[in-house]
Amino acid sequence: MASTRKVRNLDDLAERAGVTAATVSMALRNSPLLSEKMRERICRLAEESGFKPRTYRRRALPKETAEDGENGPLLVLYYEFPGEPDPVREGIMPALFLMLNERRIEYRYISCQELMADPSIVKDYRGILFYNDPEDFVLPPDIPAAQVFGWEPMREGQDRVTTNDSLVVRLAVDHLCKTGIERAAIVWCREMVAIPDHPRITGFLEAMRERNIEVEALPFHKNGGDFLPMLKTYLAAGSDRIGFFAFNAFCGLKLCCALDSLELMSKYGNSGLVVCDNSPLLYSFSPRPVMIDLNLPQMAEFALEALLRRLKRPELPGTVLLQSPVLISFNSSEPVQRG
């Protein structure tokens, strides 16, 4: 039976809607990260419940009432890929928005494309939060910044939070080898890997070779039709005792869809397929693949803390924080494995 308790805050509304408070926050701000159907459902439920949210585009607050408001305003950047999933953005931004609102920090959320069109935007902000390495433009050197993921050399006044790819590789290789595989393949998207020798890719290939496992890379183009034929060729080329490793959630989605179309998801999905991300994009597959949880919300929290610290102490040297991943098997008989 539906709850009759009065909706007083985001948590109450989230409980009634069956989603997280971060999702409710995004829906009430008309965030493009949610589907139109989800936004409409939550906004309709809020209206029916008589819930009136506070303003989510915050104004700067007086220092005597703000917790961290004096640190704003901040600029939060995202990448715009119309019609395409962006698991990193979807994992980071809801948690980041919730923290910014709770701490009463004024911010503006814009796309990198918008910043490229008008670089003067940054002059109105004290710090920048972003993820991955921006393409085609360079962030101004005189504004503090914190980044989630990234491979390009850091400039002065910047901090970075990323995952420990050595532990990611170890978790994936250890798990797959325990299943008795004879071959292994890593699946990655050419347009998503910024550097040709990414440690997640080279590390996986090297670790499998050290264990005398035949291993191959299966790179594909994001908008091409090359992956399914390549996968079919690979499957037919040797033993069917294969362990698959997907570089990220997008690559995992590509691989799971391909295996599902070949009616092979039940064969590999339960233990022979590891995806480097714990993403809702993969939850509808049965069986659900093994996932390496990078804990993107926690990475967002660490990035925000790093930026706030830098705003108070800009003389500090740049730092790189490597966060440990966790392997999650949705087979209840297998324990969680930590890096």
TrEMBL record:
Molecular-function annotations in GO: DNA-binding transcription factor activity; transcription cis-regulatory region binding
InterPro entries, alphabetized: HTH_LacI, Lambda_DNA-bd_dom_sf, Peripla_BP_I
The entry's keywords: DNA-binding, Repressor, Transcription, Transcription regulation
Domain of life, source organism: Bacteria
Residue stretches spanning the membrane: none
Domain HTH lacI-type: 8-62
Listed SUPFAM superfamilies: lambda repressor-like DNA-binding domains, Periplasmic binding protein-like I
Coiled coil: none
Protein name: DNA-binding LacI/PurR family transcriptional regulator
Organism of this sequence: Victivallis vadensis
